[in-house]
Specification:
transmembrane, 0% strand, membrane, transmembrane helix, DUF2029 domain-containing protein, mainly alpha
Length: 460
């Protein structure tokens, strides 16, 4: 009798859970399709976008607080997949990077390498498809800044489905689903659901077609392999992630520490680390056969001159001017050196250290695109002891879409630039993290604070 009652109660919970998943997916699709309708009518503004994103965030928060993420099933996975498929055939919003992706794929197909070739050199192109793509590329006077793994991806997509944006998005399902199962294996079903239903991930990858998910998967997978003592393959995969975008450079000390803690052998170090270099070289090799150029020239120009949604960097710039370009990454580097000392960081989990390092890197970076923040996302999914200010940063990063152009303030666009933001917005968000970090510290280390308060004063 008791068994039947428990079975019935379990069935009711599952039915209630399925209903919640269906309603959540319905709200997600309604908001995404609302954006699509507004975007097609050229009436989507930054304010309307943020309003819709707040709706997505509320649903996501409800799924978390109601513990729905703790009982996912095949339905939740299928609905998450359905949302992705709908967005694959939708138009990106506030983004035109996809035009460069398609263009690079064609250039690699025609020339063997996209590096060192500016789109503007093709102005006057007679082919209507290429002319349309050219008209949508931002900074056509710049060669591509994307790493070789991404360029190989663009090339392969072009071979299979030339000039098809939906194809560019479609194959991103592969690293996305692989990462979902990898997170479930490492952190459990709740974490994998948190990942799969994250509105920022879904929107940036499958609506706006940013291929960073390839590098994010490779970087996270390299740590998974290192934890399983498969260091050579882990180093190699880490090298491939660097050949997507270089964000993982700052995590090398952490993966090397995993290696050194298990294998304290100086003779093997040189051989094993060579595999990381091998991953980078193999990615660049096909392009070096056709051109001496790489992404480094354009990327150094990008880092040295471009600014977008600078938060902590604004503080550095006010203090040191353009000289701050040379040392904005210093806080992240110092955090790594601090974390490598067990005496000072023994209370912190590895994921917390990675979360803090990424936080400092992006906070002080002169360029903070919303999808860049996804690189730290998989490391924030552990159930306990997570550096949650990075979660806040991930969501507040969507406010980067409130630039003057998206707000419709064309007078300020003419005065300050297309990508500029209102100063009050940058100051507000930049300063907001000060109390957030203080709260995190007080919650994370209450014993240290109480001990410091209990110490007798030298004056009394």
């Amino acid at each position: 009798m008791g068994f039947e009652r428990n079975k019935e109660r379990s069935s009711q919970i599952l039915n209630r859970g399925n209903l919640i998943w269906i309603l959540a997916s319905f709200v997600y699709l309604c908001i995404f399709l609302f954006w699509e309708m507004k975007n097609q009518g050229r009436s989507l503004t930054g304010s309307i976008y943020i309003f819709g994103f707040c709706g997505l965030s509320i649903v996501y928060g409800f799924l978390f607080l109601s513990k729905t993420f703790e009982t996912p099933g095949r339905l939740s996975f299928a609905l998450g997949l359905l949302i992705r498929i709908v967005l694959i055939f939708s138009t990106p919003i506030f983004e035109d990077d996809w035009a460069r992706y398609l263009w690079d794929g064609w250039i690699s197909f025609e020339k063997g390498s996209p590096y060192g070739i500016t789109p503007e050199s093709f102005f006057g192109e007679l082919d209507p498809t290429r002319t349309e793509i050219l008209s949508r590329i931002n900074h056509p006077d710049w060669p591509t800044i994307y790493g070789p793994v991404l360029e190989i991806y663009f090339y392969l997509v072009h071979i299979l489905f030339p000039w098809k944006l939906w194809a560019l998005k479609l194959f991103l399902l592969v690293p996305d689903i692989l990462l979902f199962f990898l997170i479930r294996t490492k952190y459990g079903t709740r974490a994998s659901s948190l990942y799969f239903w994250n509105p920022i991930l879904i929107k940036e990858i499958f609506l706006n077609s940013h291929p960073d998910i390839i590098g994010i998967f490779l970087l996270f997978y390299s740590f998974y392999l290192a934890e399983k003592s498969r260091f050579r393959l882990g180093f190699f995969i880490w090298g491939l992630s660097i050949a997507v975008k270089g964000f993982g450079v700052f995590l090398f000390p952490f993966i090397f520490k995993l290696y050194w803690d298990k294998i304290r052998n100086w003779k093997r170090i040189g051989i094993d680390i060579t595999f990381s270099i091998l991953g980078i070289i193999l990615a660049y090799f096909p392009f070096l056969l056709f051109s001496k150029e790489t992404d480094f020239t354009a990327l150094s120009r990008f880092i040295g001159s471009f600014t977008f949604f600078p938060l902590g960097y604004n503080i550095l710039h006010d203090l040191f001017g353009e000289f701050s370009r040379t040392f904005w990454a210093l806080p992240a580097i110092l955090s790594i050196l601090f974390f490598l000392n067990k005496r000072y960081s023994s209370d912190l989990e590895e994921e917390e250290r990675i979360g803090i390092t990424f936080f400092l890197f992006f906070y002080f970076s002169p360029v903070v695109n919303a999808w860049y923040l996804l690189w730290m996302f998989p490391f924030l999914l552990k159930e306990s002891k997570v550096f949650w200010p990075s979660w806040v940063f991930l969501f507040l990063g969507q406010l980067s879409y409130l630039n003057y152009a998206n707000l419709g303030d064309w007078k300020s666009v003419l005065e300050k630039g297309y990508y500029a933001h209102p100063n009050w917005l940058l100051i507000l968000i930049g300063l907001l993290f000060l109390p957030i970090l203080l709260v995190w510290y007080r919650v994370r280390f209450p014993s240290k604070i109480s001990n410091s308060l209990e110490k007798p004063s030298l004056l009394g």
